[in-house]
Amino acid sequence: MEITNSAKRPSLVLSLIPIVVMVVLLFFTIHIFGSDALSGGSQVVLLLTTACCSALAMGFCRVKWKKIEEAICTNILGIATALLILLLIGALSGSWMISGVVPTLIYYGMQVLSPTFFLASSCIICAIVSVMTGSSWTTIATIGVALMGIGEALGFSTGWTAGAIISGAYFGDKISPLSDTTVLASSTTNTPLFTHIRYMMYTTVPTMLITLIIFTVAGFTFDHANASQAMSFAASLKDTFHISAVLMIVPVVTGILIAKRVALLITLFISALLAAVFALLFQPNLLQQIAGAESINAASMFKGAFITLYGSTQLETGNEMLNSLVSTRGMAGMMNTIWLIICAMCFGGAMTASGMLETITSVFMHFMKRRAGMVASTVFSGLTLNICTADQYISIILTGNMFKEIYRKKGYESRLLSRTTEDAVTVTSVLIPWNTCGMTQATILSVPTLTYLPYCFFNLISPLMSIIIAILGFKIKKHHEEVQD
């Protein structure tokens, strides 16, 4: 949105005031609330910062409130589909877990564990689980915690084990169509989700291959004990769920729908519904437990299946780690993320209508004469925002909004911006001790951020790979050169 003729272009100093206010407020919010900041604290900060930006725009730049309100409404309207996607992702995550799809994948993944290849296997298992669930946090807090115990028993240092777990988890978080950060990065830059995911493969796959090579080589340098804990965990998993290869029909059907480019909302709905049907067929006892019924009957199964789709579930398995692993949040669990996104859209709308975002981005134009400089500037900005705002969601939104117009004017595809944003923001958030991701994972794994940081090879290499691919110009096209995927 352009500034009206009566409005005055804000100076750089004035434009940075809302950013500084946000950083300061987020610092205190994160310090006070810790990992619970996303439950409301960060959202309130965004609304307060929106008010600050609006007041400055109206007082110093003569921007009318109606223009700011229109920009906010336009921003929220633009991510309406993404919000529906997030709700369906919550439903799908719950149904895939309770139906036994994810537990089956974990169980079979456990079978490949060996002391020598433990680090590489842990990375692969976490990657698979994260792709299936779309959540690095859930993966690390569940299977990651179990793998930390196994790694300790096998004689691996906590830094190495945590690095393998985080590398795999953030690989999945980055490319999964179920990931809220993936959806957010694509929607913020107006890039179709699967176009965004396919384009990320050019940087993500080479990075993951390098990461696995490093972990495989490292596995030969450690002395090992035994893998009895892994087998015990797998046995507990099998005792709780009906593990069957037939359950793989669900991800196979989902993959076919994705390959045929069926609309994402339809794909997610069919996948969640199919998983719910499989839950009725394979896990009736679990649905009874979720429903709180005394016996298995049509009513209890129906109630359990619905709760799986929309609400939180807690199963008693007799194994504390397993209890955490199989817990789900459903659609209700996505509300904090949706709330955060809406508040961030308010802030983005105010920054856009006031002209402050345009003023800030104009500074970067001096460093964006060429393709490599443009991508490098985006990477540096995304990383800086991760450090300053202490939150990956806010950083993704700000990075996308800051550079969207610049990429358009330069003639580059939006998918280049969405990919670079994920390479720079999503995977590096966990490497910053005061970022919500860094604090959360350090607490969950009981490993200080700076201890596991040197071993998170996927997270460290991803931003560099984005710049390297930009230098090479591989598959980077301008609008007039664009071809269909």
Automatic annotation (TrEMBL):
<feature type="transmembrane region" description="Helical">
    <location>
        <begin position="72"/>
        <end position="92"/>
    </location>
</feature>
<keyword id="KW-0813">Transport</keyword>
<comment type="similarity">
    <text>Belongs to the NhaC Na(+)/H(+) (TC 2.A.35) antiporter family.</text>
</comment>
<feature type="transmembrane region" description="Helical">
    <location>
        <begin position="452"/>
        <end position="474"/>
    </location>
</feature>
<feature type="transmembrane region" description="Helical">
    <location>
        <begin position="199"/>
        <end position="220"/>
    </location>
</feature>
<keyword id="KW-0812">Transmembrane</keyword>
<protein>
    <submittedName>
        <fullName>Na+/H+ antiporter NhaC</fullName>
    </submittedName>
</protein>
<feature type="transmembrane region" description="Helical">
    <location>
        <begin position="112"/>
        <end position="133"/>
    </location>
</feature>
<feature type="transmembrane region" description="Helical">
    <location>
        <begin position="338"/>
        <end position="357"/>
    </location>
</feature>
<dbReference type="InterPro" id="IPR052180">
    <property type="entry name" value="NhaC_Na-H+_Antiporter"/>
</dbReference>
<feature type="transmembrane region" description="Helical">
    <location>
        <begin position="40"/>
        <end position="60"/>
    </location>
</feature>
<feature type="transmembrane region" description="Helical">
    <location>
        <begin position="264"/>
        <end position="282"/>
    </location>
</feature>
<feature type="transmembrane region" description="Helical">
    <location>
        <begin position="377"/>
        <end position="403"/>
    </location>
</feature>
<feature type="transmembrane region" description="Helical">
    <location>
        <begin position="12"/>
        <end position="34"/>
    </location>
</feature>
<keyword id="KW-0050">Antiport</keyword>
<feature type="transmembrane region" description="Helical">
    <location>
        <begin position="145"/>
        <end position="171"/>
    </location>
</feature>
<keyword id="KW-1003">Cell membrane</keyword>
<dbReference type="InterPro" id="IPR018461">
    <property type="entry name" value="Na/H_Antiport_NhaC-like_C"/>
</dbReference>
<feature type="transmembrane region" description="Helical">
    <location>
        <begin position="241"/>
        <end position="258"/>
    </location>
</feature>
<keyword id="KW-1133">Transmembrane helix</keyword>
<feature type="domain" description="Na+/H+ antiporter NhaC-like C-terminal">
    <location>
        <begin position="168"/>
        <end position="474"/>
    </location>
</feature>
<dbReference type="Pfam" id="PF03553">
    <property type="entry name" value="Na_H_antiporter"/>
</dbReference>
<dbReference type="InterPro" id="IPR004770">
    <property type="entry name" value="Na/H_antiport_NhaC"/>
</dbReference>
<keyword id="KW-0472">Membrane</keyword>
